[in-house]
Amino acid sequence: MRNKIEEIGYDKIDLKGLEIKPEWNIKWYNQKDVYSDGDIEDEIIGLIAKREDNNYTEDIFNHFTWPTYYHLSPIRQDIINWYPFKEGANVLEIGCGLGAITEVLCEKCEKVTAVELSKRRATATLLRCRQRENLEIIVGNLNDIKFEKTFDYITLIGVLEYQGSYTNGTNPYEDFLTKIKSLLKPDGKLLVAIENKYGLKYWCGAREDHTSLPFDGINQYEIGNKGARTFAREELKNLLINSGFANTYFYYPLPDYKFPLYIYSENHLPKNANGWVPYYVPDGATLIADETKLYEDIIKNNVFEFFANSFFVECSADSKELGEIELAILHSNREEKHRVGTIINEKKEVQCIPLNSASKEHLLQIYDNSLKMVGKGLNIVPLKFQGNKLEISFMDCPTMEELILDAYKAKETKKIEELFDTLLRQIEMGGIEAKRENNILYELDIDKQESGIFYGKILKTGYIDMIPRNCFIKDGLLFWFDQEWKLENVPSNYILYRTILSLYGEHTWMDEAFKMEELIKKYKMEDCLEAFYKLEIMFLNTVTDKNSILAKTWFGKRGIQELQINILKLLGQNYG
């Protein structure tokens, strides 16, 4: 054991018996903790100290607050856990907070040095990563610390925006970045995550993350705290270039860098809106628009990069080898054993990766499902298991979902029906028909056989991810991919229902071209909807991390009435 517990100097909870392996360096600490979420941090540190496996699902659920969710949710780690650090990397993390990102860096890199101003926060990182022997934690201001080495990578995740307060000088942001450049190896890379001053959420009235004032950044911080600020895309790029980082590559985390589920890039921008749910602190008093309803227009008008809520920027002074990954889709909102991600690199190679040590088995399940679908006469996108990853062939052709949406936009009713008919035939091909009395709805007591409701063919094994988003169409043939889940004795119409539910839920305009109720009627599902909905909720509750379910309710989409009330407030009127 490298450190004695008493050397840590944290007396809020009993740390006796804990083995602490990282190096603990307080040489540069000035005895002041100037940045904090308050006493809630002590409670979070207590939760961390009791949890050796770092799976905080139960802790978040039982102590649900914004700080607890923010610091302990696994989704926080999605800003970095897809990034391809080179083998043997030595990384400097500036502003490690309570250790969410540090934990990932220790897993992916050979040596990690984490710097944190607040001793209390650094203690949280120490306890969270207490089994990591490749970590040194330094408490203090980076501007005061003397380093004896340079680094392959330096991370600034939610840090650059505060340098107006923590770096002295007439140009604190550029001075700070110049200091960082001196700590990088010649081919080293700086990784910056920061909000966009002109992020879409701010135009909709969300409070500025650092000043808590709506429209503060848009108003050039004339009202709020001058010591913290963010930047527009070109403004940030120019700041980096002027600080010596000649090469930059921009990524766009959605819904933002704090809780990203998608990482788009300047070479792979979104083609349509996929219903990204924003994670606001639950205070809708200032919101005047729903950002989820604006993305379709933002994308269509080619201004997504200007309005993206956050940036993740890869920077280098000398190396032009940037942008290896073009797109990452991440699923840390699931139960731990199901947390996987899909990445597409610059060579158009597709890989499905585990996001933790527990989820490799899930990748094997995807592989097995795909091979068994081939045995049923279905086509799959070619794939192979390589090391710890599932490698999937890239297909440059439209998905079935894209063709369905195009048919809706053109109001081609016949084409819409043909596509859904094709989908149902493929679903039924995927499974041997089982006896009707074996229906999973009966087994789960969702319905009784005596009801006499017709649920479609009962499939002995049904691949419930046979949805149009997971299907390419090339030369009239369907090629399936990303088949994660299967259920036994499941109605074929339930799988079709999942498609209808998700499409109409994400694209409400579809109802104008072909009413959802007409599609339900066509496939004789009018009497099935209640049972199918219950089965869908049961399935989602089984695979989704319950904190994400709670958070979705807590953060919630704002209703139009609340937005209207806020608009009328601006006009000095009452809603009535």
In short:
The chain has three domains: 1-143, Rossmann fold (3-Layer(aba) Sandwich), CATH 3.40.50; 150-157 and 168-324, Rossmann fold, CATH 3.40.50; 400-555. The longest helix has 17 residues, at 413-429.
Q: What does this molecule look like?
A:
- With 576 residues, the chain is α/β, with parallel strands linked by helices.
- It has three domains: 1-143, 3-Layer(aba) Sandwich (Rossmann fold), CATH 3.40.50; 150-157 and 168-324, Rossmann fold (3-Layer(aba) Sandwich), CATH 3.40.50; 400-555.
- It has helices spanning 5-8, 40-50, 57-62, 66-72, 100-108, 119-128, 163-166, 172-182, 200-203, 233-242, 295-300, 304-307, 360-374, 400-409, 413-429, 440-443, 492-506, 510-513, 516-522, 529-543, 546-555, 560-570; strands at residues 23-25, 90-94, 111-116, 135-139, 151-157, 184-195, 247-254, 262-265, 310-316, 325-330, 340-345, 350-354, 383-386, 389-392, 458-463, 471-474, 477-480, 486-491.
- The strands form three sheets. Strands 1-4-3-2-5-6-9-7-8-10-11-12-14-13 form a 14-stranded mixed sheet, sandwiched between helices. A two-stranded antiparallel sheet has the order 15-18.
- The longest helix is centred in the C-terminal third of the chain and has 17 residues, at 413-429.
